[in-house]
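Annotated sample (chain length 132).
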Amino acid sequence: MKKLLWGLVGVVAAVVWMQVAQTQAQGSMAKSSAYMEYSAQAFEEASNQKRVLFFAASWCPTCRAADRDINAKLGEIPQGLVIFKTDYDKETTLKSKYGIVRQHTFVWVDAKGNALKKWSGGNLAEIVTNTR
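Output written by the structure step:
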C-alpha cells in the first residue's frame, strides 16, 4: 500500500512540475499586452493601436529566435504598439489576405485591417523601425 501511495505522489508531483514548466515557458508572453498570441477578438480590440502580425511557425528556427528576442525585450516595445504572434500553419485566411508565402513575415496593419507594410525576417528592432 505504501508503494502505491508513493507512486501516486510521484505521478502527481511530475504532473504539477510539467504544468509549472509549461506556464513559465509561456509566462513572458502572457504577461505582456504588447506581445500576444493572435486572436480575432484581441486583434480587433487593439484597432486603435499600431498592430503588427508576426507570422511564426513552431518548426521555424528563425521564428523561435525572433520570439525569444521579443520576449526578452518586452519593456522595449513602444507604447501603442501591439505585436500578434500569428500561427503560420493555422491562420490560412490571414495568410491569404496579406499574401504571406513564408513564415517569419511581419505585417503592419492599419485600424481597418489594411496592410501598411510587409517584410520578412528580423526581430524587435526591425519591428520598431518599420512601424515608425
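Annotation: Residues 11 and 26 are 23 Å apart (CA to CA).
Annotation: The chain has five helices and five strands.
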